[in-house]
C-alpha cells in the first residue's frame, strides 16, 4: 500500500490494529514498514456477489475492487477502537448470513477494511 501520510498509516495499522512490525527500511527516497498480517487468503468475487456482500454489510455498494478483512475477537470493540484511532466508519457491525459479525471501515490511505468476528 502506498500512503501519502506514512506515519499515520504505520500508527494505525501497527499500533491501533496491532499488526506486528516485521521490518522497516529507508532509503534517500523514502521509507517502508513491513507488518505481519498473519495467514492470508484471496477472496475473488464476481460483481453480483460483491454487490451482495456490500448490501449485507453496509446496505449499499461501497467497496472498490480491493477490500481487506481482518478477523477480530470482538467486532464491536475493535470497530470502536479503530474509529477512535482514525478510521472512518462505513457501517456498524452487522450479523451476516454466513454467521459472522462484520463491520466496515475506511483506514488510512483509503483502504477499505472489513472487521469480522466468527459467531459459531
Automatic annotation (TrEMBL):
Pfam families xref list: Glyoxalase (PF00903)
Name of the molecule in the record: VOC domain-containing protein
Entry-linked PROSITE patterns: VOC
Signal peptide location: none
Domain VOC: 1-118
Amino acid at each position: 500500500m502506498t500512503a501519502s501520510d506514512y506515519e499515520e498509516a504505520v500508527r494505525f495499522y501497527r499500533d491501533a490494529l496491532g499488526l506486528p512490525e516485521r521490518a522497516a527500511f529507508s532509503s534517500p527516497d523514502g521509507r517502508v514498514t513491513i507488518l505481519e498480517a498473519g495467514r492470508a487468503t484471496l477472496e475473488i468475487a464476481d460483481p453480483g456477489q460483491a454487490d451482495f456482500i456490500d448490501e449485507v454489510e453496509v446496505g449499499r455498494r461501497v467497496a472498490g475492487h480491493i477490500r481487506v478483512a481482518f478477523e477480530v475477537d470482538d467486532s464491536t470493540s475493535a470497530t470502536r477502537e479503530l474509529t477512535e484511532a482514525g478510521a472512518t466508519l462505513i457501517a456498524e457491525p452487522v450479523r451476516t448470513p454466513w454467521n459472522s459479525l462484520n463491520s466496515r471501515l475506511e483506514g488510512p490511505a483509503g483502504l477499505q477494511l472489513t472487521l469480522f468476528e466468527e459467531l459459531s
